[in-house]
Structure formats: C-alpha cells, structure tokens
Amino acid sequence: MGMISASLEENVTCLDRRLAVGKSFDIVSRPLVIAGRKSRFYVVDGMCKDELLHKLLEFFLGLKEKELPKEPVEMARRFMPTVEMELENDVQKIEKNLLSGVFCLLIDGYDQCILIDARTYPARSFEEPEKDKALRGAKDCFVETVVFNTAMIRRRIRSSDLRMEMYTIGESSRTDVVISYMDSRVNRPLLDKVR
C-alpha cells in the first residue's frame, strides 16, 4: 500500500505493520474518537513536546461532530493556521516524517494524514564525553534518561527496521533496559542470548 485511503482500518493495519508497532516500545500508536469519528495518532516517544501534544489532543477531543470538516484540507485551514503542519497521503513520506519526530494523525474518512511538527529534543544538550574523545563522527553522548537516549538513536537512524525492546531488570532496582537492533541485520541467536 503506497497511499493513504479513506479507511482508517486499512491505514492503521498498513502503518502498524510498517512501523512494527508493539515490537518497539518508543513507537506510540493510540486510538481516539474525534468528533464521533474513529482516529489514530502516531508519535515517537521522547521526540514530541509534551505540552503541545497534550494541547493538540485536548483540542481534537473537544471537537463536536458538526464542527469536523468533510475534507482534511478544510480541517487544516480552519483549525490549524499557526501550527507547522501539512497533509500527506504517501505512506513512505508519513513513515519518514514520523521517524523524524513528527506527530501523525489519521481520521476515518480522510484520505490524507495530518502531520504536525511538534518535535523537541532532550532538555540537556548532548556533549562529547570528556574521556573517549572521537576525532571523526558525531559528538553525541547519552544522558541519564532512557527515553531521551532512544530518541537520540531514532534521530540518527530513521528506519522502520530499527527495533527498541524495553525490559525491566533487577528485583530491587527495577532498572529499564532497552535492546536496540536492526531487525533485518541482527544475529538472531545472539539477540536471543542477550534477551
């Protein structure tokens, strides 16, 4: 499937499969009801401004049935004139935008996806470690929060082949641990051993 259809169910099936929803903890897919219509939003955890996301969801959930325009273009023109947004019906472009941190909203009956740029980056900037200086390549380093770290990896590797599996280990510490790998390239026996 290369283009978004007016059927939310078809779109969700396609995107969930392409994005491996349920396999990677950081790809968030949630159902909503907007103005009486089934809807679904997608976002990468850690790459979207929380306050803006909450305000957008509050706004969408507050829409009445009679207020919802018949066409997505009208929705964009009437309700989102100041937000950085665009409409897209190409599944590959939607996937690329989502993996870049863009909030994606599908509404049943709309044959276009609403893409809202609500990207953010971790509060503390990434700095090159004092030890282990690199002469070439990226100067990023991890921070204390696992979600920010996985978001940083997603920023560098914008592929739906990237998997992020979260586990909690330790009976007392209950530490969050993420196994990150490329699904098409991973050594399966080694992955099973790490798990």
Please describe what this structure looks like.
By secondary structure, the protein is α+β, with helices and mostly antiparallel strands. The chain is 31% helix and 23% strand. The protein is built from 6 helices and 7 strands, in the order H-E-E-H-H-E-H-E-E-H-E-E-H. It has a 5-stranded antiparallel β-sheet, with helices on both faces. A two-stranded antiparallel ribbon has the order 6-7. The two termini are 33 Å apart. 24% of the residues are buried. The model has no long low-confidence stretch (mean pLDDT 85).
Question: How would you sum up this structure in a few lines?
Answer:
By secondary structure, the protein is α+β, with helices and mostly antiparallel strands. It contains six helices and seven strands; from the N terminus they run H-E-E-H-H-E-H-E-E-H-E-E-H.
Topology:
Layout (H helix, E strand, L loop, with lengths): L7 H12 L7 E8 L2 E8 L5 H13 L9 H8 L5 E4 L2 H9 L3 E5 L5 E4 L29 H11 L5 E8 L5 E8 L5 H7 L1
What keyword list fits this structure?
five-stranded antiparallel β-sheet; elongated; single chain; 7 strands; alpha+beta; two-stranded antiparallel sheet; 6 helices; 23% strand; 195 residues
Query: Roughly how many Å is the radius of gyration?
Result: 19 Å
N- and C-termini, Cα separation? 33 Å
Strand content: 15-25%
| Helix and strand pattern | HEEHHEHEEHEEH
> What does the overall shape look like?
elongated
Largest sheet: 5 strands, antiparallel
* Class by SSE composition: alpha+beta
Secondary structure: helix percent: 25-40%
Mean of residue pLDDT? 85
Summed up, the helix count is 6
Number of strands: 7
Task: Identify the strand order in the major beta sheet.
Answer: 1-2-4-5-3
Report low-confidence residues grouped into runs of 5 or more. Answer: none
